[in-house]
Amino acid sequence: MSTPLSGPGSAQQAPGRGPVRTGSPRTSRTARNHAPITAAGLAAKVILLGLVAGIAIWAAFPLVAAEKWVGLAVLVLTTAALFYLYLGRRHVPAKYLIPGTLFLIAFQVVPVLYTASTAFTNFGDGHRGSKDDAIVAIQTSSVRQVPGSTQYPLSVATKGDPATGALVFLITKPGTDTVSVGDAGGLRPLEPGAATVGAGGKVTAADGYTVLNFGQASARSKDITDLVVPTAGGALRSSGLSRAYEGKAVRAYDAGCDCVKDSDSGKTWTADGEVGAFVAADGERLAQGWKVNVGLSNFTRVLTDERISGPFLGTLIWNFAFAIGSTGSTFILGMLIALALHSPRMRGTNLYRMLLILPYAMPSFAMLLVWRDMFNTDFGLINNLFGLSVDWFGQDWSARAAVILVQLWLGYPYMFLVATGALQAIPRELTEATSVDGASRWQSFRAVTLPLLLVALSPLLISSFAFNFNNFNAIYLTTEGAPFPADNPSNGATDLLITYTYRLAFGGQAAQFGFAAAISLFIFAIVAVVSVVSFRRTRQQEEVYA
Amino acid sequence: MTMLTGAAVTGGANGPAAVNRNPGKRRKRWFAEVGWRHLVGLLGVLFSLFPLVFVVSAALNPLGTLSSTELVPTGGVSLENFGNLFARTEFADWFLNSLLVAGGAAFASVFLSALAAYAFSRMRFQGRRVGLLSLLLIQMFPQFLAIVAIFLIFGTITDLWPAIGFNTPWGLLLLYLGGALGVNTWLMKGFFDTLPRELDESATVDGASHAQVFFRIMLPLVAPILAVTGLLAFINTINEFLMASVFLTDTDAKTLAVGMRGMLQGGERNTNFGIFAAGTLLTAIPTVLVFQFLQRYIVSGLTSGAVKG
């Protein structure tokens, strides 16, 4: 559909001849080498670009509604660029590269950059929002019922499904019919007439809201207790399911000293911009802080904080051992079996092959869980079969041996397959020549077969190493990092860096997104260095760029 | 050819002469030449099969608990676990979600990286080398290392476009396509490079456009590598757990990996083992089918791609 000059034809030029469009002028084209515009090609173009326009319009409405103008600008520019690119005849390589690149940028490059920027912050539980958010949270959570607090009749409602929808409080000012609706964002008066107020001031119906009946409300009593509606003088909280009180905030922010004061105890916590928290003179920190830039401290913490650097180093060493052990053992076993079956006198090799590669075709997540239960101390197959009562995942070394064994089972069929292929590519004359020269089988394997196999398979071994280095499933679905030392529940003996990172970010304890992101960057640096070094050593770069 | 030389050499060595030797020596010789190969093969098959036999017997065991499961079922055989699997869990939903996400992601990612590999292999343009290198570099940062950032980004997307947000297969599919380029592009580029340039050059001379060259000439010729990368992408996506578990929390939106792990959580772990094993067998069906269908391509595709890097 485009010019042969800029299209695949340009491949005829020697590499390095210069920019693609320096060829002969467009006017010199004859009718013969001008590729015709086919009906099918045109139709495909119209349909695909129509689809792009449709998606862009669909995506634009929510952006306008939410007033996200930067997002809208990115959307418009991207769409315009796509139209310019595919309607024109130039930029042929870009036409092939852009579709994948768009996804790459949106869902890989942007998250990676976001991760990198997160690694320099204290982002995590307790440090999620801005300083103002933290102040509101501190004040509302310190609300106490004091003598003289105003009491309101309360109805609980949702804006959707009674069981899952976001809760709101509907309260009526005592003595009047004025109804207000409150949520975590504050209290707003409802239009007169939009709500029906029943006896005792309880709201029985409100436009746009579903009022919960007693059963529905008691099913969500915990959510109701947790809901705090900030007001000017303090906050509204529920007391039971049908009453609310407006309490006074015991702790209040004072802009003058940039601190939080507790009116009961008189204690003050001063804002510390370095750590993003209010800190008292005795070092006590308030739980709600805010997100600040902490520079390199997440990185230095990994290296210098003894509670972290010790276990981190152990995890790093085990991570290497795991990746090397998994890759090496699968390669050796796969190669041995491939060598054994690689003989013209062998019969039934197809049957062997079919049965051998079955583990590779099974869903590995399920088989990892099956293996976990095969290692079960009480009912596991391994202990039953051999009459043992080993607590496999309870001791460091048996747990490590077990996960490597599982990796061996899952991985060797792949190595067997590729080794079989590579063996078939080695001419039999080579090994025959060595045996004519009087070499033993072992010598000819060492001198001829193994080097040729390694040349063919080293890129796969490197990528297998990189894959196993971050093999989250292998650990998370079997041991979950266990066994853990008694004094450190966050870093177990079989933990890889990636499972450790996941636990920091999404584990049971307080999420530490910033710290987890810093460890992600460490992992990235390690894998990158290992890969670059090994690729250089195998000299694949030169070959690929030829 | 190798068959012929192989047979001739061995035949010459111990063919007619061997008849006169005593049978013990012959057996020894047979073992040294062929027998040990069968022994290694059999041991390998045993190692491959015993966990699978365990799964099959657990799936057929009517008691359906881990503690009652043996390597060979002795307490009778029934299909009860399969019935319970569909009656007590959302297995059918999970299965369809997985097929949709893994099938869609495999197909789309193979297509996207074939497009890119064609450009990198056949065209010379500014930034080609940089492009290839950055692909390698970006791919070293596995997508799931950025899971925290992805979680936060998709929080915004869910607010704006719930149709592709959390708990939808479409959002997860898009997310997986972020990693579509990368390793697959390199593997495919290696394969594209092995095809003679004369093929597409002559088509161009005959007036074919670059799109026609790509769809009519290149794609059919690279079918083996498409099959292999497609299979690998399918297997990887079916097994992907980390992102899917963060992404899909509604019971009926889960994929097999997330849903089935839930079966073996907490107190249900022992009692659910039978239906879990039944689910494992059903989960294997699509992969085994694709595997059988593509098997003839796999060995040649993997190794030719590997040699080229």
UniProtKB/TrEMBL annotation, chain A:
<dbReference type="Pfam" id="PF16296">
    <property type="entry name" value="TM_PBP2_N"/>
</dbReference>
<keyword id="KW-0813">Transport</keyword>
<dbReference type="InterPro" id="IPR032550">
    <property type="entry name" value="TM_PBP2_N"/>
</dbReference>
<feature type="transmembrane region" description="Helical">
    <location>
        <begin position="351"/>
        <end position="371"/>
    </location>
</feature>
<keyword id="KW-0812">Transmembrane</keyword>
<dbReference type="InterPro" id="IPR000515">
    <property type="entry name" value="MetI-like"/>
</dbReference>
<dbReference type="InterPro" id="IPR035277">
    <property type="entry name" value="MalF_N"/>
</dbReference>
<dbReference type="Pfam" id="PF00528">
    <property type="entry name" value="BPD_transp_1"/>
</dbReference>
<keyword id="KW-0762">Sugar transport</keyword>
<feature type="transmembrane region" description="Helical">
    <location>
        <begin position="447"/>
        <end position="467"/>
    </location>
</feature>
<comment type="similarity">
    <text>Belongs to the binding-protein-dependent transport system permease family. MalFG subfamily.</text>
</comment>
<keyword id="KW-1133">Transmembrane helix</keyword>
<feature type="transmembrane region" description="Helical">
    <location>
        <begin position="401"/>
        <end position="426"/>
    </location>
</feature>
<keyword id="KW-1003">Cell membrane</keyword>
<feature type="compositionally biased region" description="Polar residues">
    <location>
        <begin position="1"/>
        <end position="13"/>
    </location>
</feature>
<feature type="transmembrane region" description="Helical">
    <location>
        <begin position="316"/>
        <end position="339"/>
    </location>
</feature>
<feature type="transmembrane region" description="Helical">
    <location>
        <begin position="513"/>
        <end position="535"/>
    </location>
</feature>
<dbReference type="InterPro" id="IPR035906">
    <property type="entry name" value="MetI-like_sf"/>
</dbReference>
<feature type="transmembrane region" description="Helical">
    <location>
        <begin position="42"/>
        <end position="63"/>
    </location>
</feature>
<keyword id="KW-0472">Membrane</keyword>
<dbReference type="InterPro" id="IPR047103">
    <property type="entry name" value="MalF_P2_sf"/>
</dbReference>
<feature type="region of interest" description="Disordered">
    <location>
        <begin position="1"/>
        <end position="31"/>
    </location>
</feature>
From TrEMBL, chain B:
<feature type="transmembrane region" description="Helical">
    <location>
        <begin position="170"/>
        <end position="192"/>
    </location>
</feature>
<feature type="transmembrane region" description="Helical">
    <location>
        <begin position="213"/>
        <end position="235"/>
    </location>
</feature>
<keyword id="KW-0812">Transmembrane</keyword>
<comment type="similarity">
    <text>Belongs to the binding-protein-dependent transport system permease family. MalFG subfamily.</text>
</comment>
<protein>
    <submittedName>
        <fullName>Arabinogalactan oligomer/maltooligosaccharide transport system permease protein</fullName>
    </submittedName>
</protein>
<keyword id="KW-0762">Sugar transport</keyword>
<dbReference type="InterPro" id="IPR000515">
    <property type="entry name" value="MetI-like"/>
</dbReference>
<feature type="transmembrane region" description="Helical">
    <location>
        <begin position="132"/>
        <end position="158"/>
    </location>
</feature>
<keyword id="KW-0813">Transport</keyword>
<feature type="domain" description="ABC transmembrane type-1">
    <location>
        <begin position="95"/>
        <end position="294"/>
    </location>
</feature>
<dbReference type="InterPro" id="IPR035906">
    <property type="entry name" value="MetI-like_sf"/>
</dbReference>
<keyword id="KW-1003">Cell membrane</keyword>
<keyword id="KW-1133">Transmembrane helix</keyword>
<keyword id="KW-0472">Membrane</keyword>
<dbReference type="Pfam" id="PF00528">
    <property type="entry name" value="BPD_transp_1"/>
</dbReference>
<feature type="transmembrane region" description="Helical">
    <location>
        <begin position="35"/>
        <end position="60"/>
    </location>
</feature>
<dbReference type="InterPro" id="IPR050901">
    <property type="entry name" value="BP-dep_ABC_trans_perm"/>
</dbReference>
<feature type="transmembrane region" description="Helical">
    <location>
        <begin position="94"/>
        <end position="120"/>
    </location>
</feature>
<feature type="transmembrane region" description="Helical">
    <location>
        <begin position="273"/>
        <end position="294"/>
    </location>
</feature>
